[in-house]
Amino acid sequence: MTISLLNFTHLAPYFISFILFLLLLEQISYLRRKRFVPGPSLVVPFLGNAISLVRRPTNFWDVQSALAKSSGLGFSVNYIIGKFILFIRDTELSHKVFANVRPDAFHLVGHPFGKKLFGEHNLIYMMGQEHKDIRRRIAPNFTPKALSTYTALQQIIILKHFKIWEKLSSENAPNPIALRVLARDMNLETSQTVFVGPYLGLEARERFKQDYFFFNVGLMKLPIDFPGTAFRNARLAVDRLIKTLGTCTGRSKKRMEGGEEPSCLIDYWMQDTLREIAENKAAGNPPPPYSSDAEIGGFLFDFLFAAQDASTSSLLWAVTLLDSHPDVLSKVREEVAGVWSPESDTLITAEQLREMKYTQAVAREVVRYRPPATLVPHIAAENFPLTESYTIPKGCIVFPSAFDSSFQGFTEPDRFDPDRFSGERQEDQIFKRNFLAFGAGAHQCVGQRYALNHLVLFIALFASLMDFKRHRSDGCDEISYVPTICPKDDCKVSLKRRCTRYPSFPQIELTK
Predict the structure, then answer these.
(1) CA gap 168, 95 in Å, rounded
(2) What is the C-alpha separation between 210 and 207, in angstroms, rounded?
(3) Strands 75-80 and 83-88
(4) What is the DSSP string of 314-383?
(5) Which element (helix H / strand E) includes 277?
(6) Is there a contact between 454 and 432 (Cβ–Cβ < 8 Å)?
(7) Which of 81, 179, 227, 473 is deepest in the core (most CB within 10 A)?
(8) Could you give the C-alpha distances from 57 to 325, 372, 422, in angstroms and in order?
(9) Beta bridge mates, 495
(10) d(C-alpha 367, C-alpha 361), whole Å
(11) DSSP 197-233
């Protein structure tokens, strides 16, 4: 024991020197990649500025944006958990990243630790012809006919949850209720109903809700994959969610084989997929790639991830902005009343929705003013020349900022102004390249029309059916990352019904 202790004492200075040498190499490597780009000159070993990012994400990205703007370069750098990162504020440089998603340039990662959480085999990480083929198969899910089917389903769930919100507000009066979790639950049930309709029973929906909660918590944690950690719980929850969605896919195939009409998104998808499978079989070929239940279940989870939290963010900001802009709220109510009335005891049709031009403009302005997915992470697969003077090093995680682009070019971009999207001003066309809330390039959001329809429906129904008052407090409108952005106070409101009754809506049949 004494000899071992002496040996350790003798070797300790060498061990410490070796560790210091490694830390020095880490600093030199960071500075070599940083070069003249604005960012911290020294970083905490390995962790970098991870603690600052996790504790105060809004402030972290605000600092990166300010550095990028003040330098005139349009981008800045930092270091997080052994990863060199580059933040892009400039719109044209962001487009350069979006336009170069390919094996020898940038890979979309969706989340800094996405591959560990989602697995490698999903839509986020596909590219090239393989990616084009799967998007082609997804296209039938978002035809006007399909969107019309979803319009009814969306309203049924929205109206169901409005009743819950109204009751909660009444029971908690005079205290306000926070809408974030309520809106998230509503959107989760909407996604379940629109995507897999009747194939998810009540018990399965409860398990689904719990697993999605684990997933949401894990999104905001460091990727420590040990039993009992939030990240491990999230990863296991994703596996269960994908398995459940795969089971729903199999049930849809059986129903569509029977020649029934599609009742949800997976039905439209399987109707077309079954045709391709039959054509391949007749030609003596194997089934088309990515047509198995498990594979499609994985893609459905991608849809869920893309739609769920982003949509929740937009709904919360819609309530916040309508409350703080009573003139906009009044115009929405006037337009909707001219097209549809709850007293008609019918749901809003797809045709009526298209007539609500101002409400559509409000929805687009909500998304521009507060884009839910503020950053779109990519990783550089190879060294990439971003400008004439700076090359992004291989392995760097690159964050094009959809948020910063939304405040460039537009007339008075810091002002919430739905009229910018009117037929007269057409800023959605004039400054189209700055409207990056749904991304750009090959990975631009395939379901953006569905997402906007959902937001328009929510705004139309909420404004028409509810009287609401926001309970404002200091800093309540500050941005909070959870993981998409929402008001810091979780959007606290008091509300009550402003109509005599809600329109009737049918019950949705579920599997046992």
Answers:
(1) 45
(2) 5
(3) antiparallel
(4) HHHHHHHHHHH-HHHHHHHHHHHHHH--GGG-SPPPHHHHHH-HHHHHHHHHHHHHS-SS-B--EEESS-
(5) helix 265-282
(6) no
(7) 179
(8) 27, 14, 34
(9) 468
(10) 10
(11) GGGS-HHHHHHHHHHHHHHHHHHTS----STTSHHHH
The Cα–Cα gap between 189 and 157 comes to: 7
Amino acid at 149: T
Task: Report helix, strand or coil for 293.
Answer: helix
483 neighbors 61 (Cβ within 8 angstroms): no
| CB of 356 closer than 8 Å to CB of 339 | yes
End-to-end CA separation in angstroms for the chain: 67
What whole-number distance in Å separates Cα of residue 102 and Cα of residue 452?
A: 28
100 near 231, Cβ under 8 Å? no
Contact 46, 29 (CB under 8 A): no
| CA pair distance 250, 295, nearest whole angstrom | 11
Beta bridge partners of 392: 384
The CA-based diameter of the chain, rounded to the nearest angstrom, is 91
**CA contacts within 13 A on the Cβ side of 254:** 8
Write down the pLDDT at residue 127.
Answer: 87
Summarised one tens digit per residue, pLDDT across range 121-131 is: 678 888 888 88
d(CA 459, CA 333): 9
Q: Is the dihedral of CA 385, 386, 392, 394 positive or negative?
A: negative
Question: Which pLDDT tens digit goes with each residue over 315-342?
Answer: 999 999 999 999 999 999 999 999 999 8
**What span, in angstroms and rounded, lies between the C-alpha atoms of 131 and 139?**
12
Q: Quote the CA–CA distance of 298 and 281 in Å, as a whole number.
A: 24
Residue ranges of the chain with per-residue pLDDT less than 50: none
Residue 147 three-state SS: helix
Radius of gyration of the chain from Cα atoms? Answer: 25
How many Å apart are CA 55 and CA 105, to the nearest integer? 32
371: left (phi over 0), alpha (psi -120 to 50) or beta: beta
